[in-house]
Amino acid sequence: MTGAPLMAEMTWPEIEAAGRAGAVALWSVGSTEQHGPHLPVSVDHLLPVELSLRIAEHVHVVIPPPQPFGNRSHPLSGGGQGFPGTTSLRASTLITVVRDVVGELARTFDRIALVNWHAENVNLLYEGVELARESGGMDGVTVLVVDRVWNAFADAELDFLFADAGGFPGWAAEHAALVETSLMLALRPDLVREERIADDAAADSPFYELLPAPPSHVPVSGVLARASKGSREKGERLAAMLVERLAGALRDGLGAPPAP
Ligand SMILES: [Zn+2]
C-alpha cells in the first residue's frame, strides 16, 4: 500500500518515494508521564500522532514513530518524577536523540517538522536540530519546530474551552486537565477512564519551583487543574483547530505539498 502516513508501516521504497515527492517527515516528541487516574501515561505522544494522522488528510506527510520519552517531569507542570510510570530522559539525552533522529530523517526528507507536546521539552528540540545541522548532511533541508503548540492560538480563540470551567488555569497547570481530557475523549476515547475523571490542583502553585518539591506542589491525583469540564465536543473542536493551524504551518513554513 502506498501513501500510508505511518512510517513504521511503510517499506523503504515507499518512504523514498514520499521523500522525493516532498512529503514532510512529521515527528511527534512527547513523554511517558502520569496523566492522573483517568488518562494513560502515553497522552503526550499519542495526541500529536493522532493529530498528525488527521493532518495527513490535508498535506503530504510521513509520520515517523513518535519519541515516547521526554525530559524529566516538573512537579508544577507534570506532577514530577514521583509517580509510577513516569519515565523520563535527562535533557542531554533527549537533545542527542533529537539530533540523531533528525539527522537520519534528513537523509530522505528535505522537509522535517517536529511537534512537541510536553512542556519540559521546550527548547530541547531546537537545540537538537541545531546540533544535527552542525553535524552536517543537512544542506537543503528545512526543519520546522513547534515548541509550544498553544502559541498557535490567541487566548480568545480558546475561550470556548474554559467558559464553563471557571476560567483558564494557565498552560503549566493544564496537565491531565480539561484540554488533554477533551482531546483524548475525541481522539482516543477507548483509553479514557471516564468514571475516574476528577478535578484537582496543587495546594500551592507559586511562580517558582523548589527542589526538592514540597508535597504542597504535587497533587496526589496528578491532575493539576479541572478535568471534569472536558468533553468530546470540546476535544473535536480543538482538534480541528489544531489540525488546521498545524497543516497551515507545514504549508506556509515548509511548502508542504497537498496530501496525495
Ligand atoms: Zn500531557
Q: Rg from C-alpha positions? A: 18 Å
DSSP summary, beta strand count: 4
Q: Give the overall pLDDT as a whole number.
A: 95
Small molecules in complex: zinc ion
Oligomer: single chain
Count of helical segments? 8
Shape: globular
Instruction: Give the topology string: H per helix, E per strand.
Output: HEHEHHEHEHHH
The helix content, as a percent range, equals 25-40%
N-to-C span: 13 Å
Poorly predicted tracts of residues? none
Give the DSSP E fraction (strand runs of 2 or more residues): 5-15%
Structural description of this entry:
The protein is an alpha/beta fold. It is 35% helix and 7% strand. It contains 8 helices and 4 strands. It has helices at 12-20, 43-55, 75-78, 91-105, 124-135, 159-162, 178-187, 232-254; strands at residues 24-29, 61-62, 111-116, 142-146. The protein has a 4-stranded parallel beta sheet, sandwiched between helices. Helix 2 crosses helix 7, helix 4 crosses helix 5 (124-135) and helix 7 crosses helix 8. The chain is globular and about 50 Å long. 43% of the residues are buried. The mean pLDDT is 95. Bound molecules: zinc ion. Zinc ion binds next to helix 2.
